[in-house]
Amino acid sequence: MSFQILYMHDICPDYKEFLKTFEPHARFENNFSISVPQKIGDILVASIFKNPSAIGEVNNMIGLFLFSLSTFETRLYFFKNSYYKMLFFDDKNYTFYGCIHDVNDNRLKISICEVNLRKTIERTLMEVPIMDLDNTNQLPNIYSNIKMINHQYIIIFVENSEQNGFRFILTDMVNEKYYVYEPRNCCGDYLLYTFSFMDYIPPVNNNDGYILIKTGKIEPHEKEMLWNNHNIERIVDALETFILYPQSKFIQDIILQKPYFDSYLVDCSLRNSSFDFYNFIDEQYYFYTKYKFDKNKTELIKINLHNLTKQDCYVLDGIVYPLLRDREGNFCVFQCLEEQENDKRKLKIVNHSVFKNEKHTVDIDISNDEQLLFAYNFSLVFENFISGFVLTASPKIDFINPKHYKIKIYSTKTKKPVYEFNTKHPVFLHCAYGLINDPLNPEEHLLLLF
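^ thats the sequence. predicted structure below, dont judge the formating
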């Protein structure tokens, strides 16, 4: 067993040059931020933003950093245009799809763009009018949720909170058409006035994909706190619903202006319960959790995507989140706590495999300035734990400026450090990723630092 620390400064010359333009504590002109990397296929993708705190600026995504987990190839790419957000990344063809917000003559529009990173070609695929504004001061009141479901269709939900109005826009990029649906107070439209978010469940085993819509703008932990404090009655968004709309039917119904949202209502939560979604899918089955605050129970519910019927409901004692899945597909309640005992600090980690009813608890003594690494990316903490490791860092993580840190890698068996080091470069520690198994050496674990 060995560990290797990979610094982007050393393996990507472009990244090293980019950091020279970074001015610590700059307010606007040279103020950059790098997102927590997300794993897309076999590629780690980190977004680069300029002036992320600038008031009124929404198109601030200026580039991407790419790292291949199989070949260790790196790529730093700066866009010709600045983007509002990434819609999709095609890891096979190194193609980025993004959108740009633009206001012209008090009309908000979104430009859908494609960037071929290998050929360095950027092009606009389509411009979609979103909403007319009385003035540009209305822009902060506009909320949009955008999902690219394939290379042809993009679904846009847009809401004007000031006017209490919303609409769906289905964009057909192949035929360069768009279809706008505005509520008519029928067929379940009323459900969408408290729209929370929209997600996409891709097709499984040649079945249709699904558009997941959740209503009720409230998080489970918020609702639990309000319930416990007897304040839930005054909350407008206390009613939550969960809709699974078949992809092909949704497209057809929006084009025909006849969607039936209430026909695909899967479940609802009143004031005494709430939902959570983890995108757990096994073949044609989809799993989600429902918390029953009045009964102090957590239900793990299994739905057959063929007919949207509930197949099983597993009941757990207590309100437990988050739920994660290990490599064998077991559902686990995973918790990390920092405890103070007199002058000693302890990191307590509990992994409870709910159906095996097995619990693994590890207590690690840490110094006063140590903190759990990857607390902002909990799935990484979980992956490292089931591999037998826990990582800490000191001092406190700076999310704005790169710094030097001391990193310790603990063994869950011995509860002692098996490797520790001081970073040789100032790093953005919230962008760290690992531990990664080296494809050329299974006994070696890699930690990637930006």
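The radius of gyration is 24 Å.
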